[in-house]
Design a protein that fits this description.
Layout: E1 7-10, H1 16-27, E2 33-36, E3 51-54, H2 66-73, E4 83-86, H3 93-115
Length: 125
């Protein structure tokens, strides 16, 4: 079965101007999927992101520390239906801490929303 999915790929060989163009095109709906290798990990606030997939999440190191995982997972946090998938053969200590912290934050947010009568909505740009 064939699908018509429009995909863009960001990597370190793409210059800054082209990266900005690709991100703008993704946000405008030109692409359905934006694949990035560590370039989309931090600092981008894109409510359009509904899925973050982390490959080799169990390979310990700088990019798989609990803090790095939380940052990467957070790229989908502005989307009401945002999800993160961590692909791994086992759950590392860093992964468990990231999962625990994410659950803690979610519980706190749900309680706050309930106390203040807030119904979550996806952020819109």
């Amino acid at each position: 079965k064939e699908y018509s999915i429009k995909v863009a790929y960001l990597h370190s060989d793409i210059d800054t101007v082209e990266r900005v163009k690709i991100i703008h095109e993704f946000r405008s709906g030109l692409y359905d999927v934006l694949v990035g290798i560590n370039l989309l990990r931090e600092g981008l606030d894109m409510p359009e992101v509904s899925l973050v997939a982390i490959l080799d999440a169990d390979k310990e190191g700088f990019l798989r520390s609990d803090r790095a995982l939380i940052q990467t997972i957070g790229r989908a946090a502005r989307n009401l239906n945002g999800k993160a998938i961590l692909y791994a053969d086992r759950i590392t200590d860093s992964m468990q801490r990231a999962i625990d912290e994410t659950d803690r934050r979610r519980t706190k947010q749900i309680e706050f929303n309930r106390e203040h009568g807030i119904t979550p909505r996806s952020a819109v740009r």
